[in-house]
Amino acid sequence: MTKNSAAIDNRRARHEYHILESLEAGLVLSGTEVKSVRGGGASLAEAYARFRDGEAWLLGMHIAPYKQGSFSNAEPTRPRKLLLHKAEIVRLQSRVAEKGLTVVPLRLYFTRGLAKVLLGVARGKKLWDKRADVAKPDVDREIARHVRRA
Description:
By secondary structure, the protein is an alpha+beta fold. It has helices spanning 11-16, 31-38, 86-96, 127-149; strands spanning 7-9, 17-27, 42-43, 48-52, 55-59, 62-63, 80-83, 101-111, 114-124. Strand 4 and strand 5 form a beta hairpin.
């Protein structure tokens, strides 16, 4: 990834879900949406993927209207098509059919000028899982401190 390319991370996804596997998908955006994303005007916090009629769609992603876009701006939370091979769509659909699994975007970035989304097949965390994840760095730090002193 180059220095000047915009990357939008979904920090909330790793807190809310156990990520079981991930894969890259293309994303269909309009011209003003691309400019807005490059400027950092996108949020993946509420986004998730759904499958309909053999196609994959990203729902709930917010892309702020481009300031210089005027009438050509698209609706900020419209469904956006994901570009995946048919076999990948079928495999993801079968995984999502399992109880408790969903597909969430982890990162939005550009590769050679093309918008890409890193998707994760995820299972929701329980409250105690989230508490354990928050406490783990503190415990690791304490253990490292005691090892250094010993």
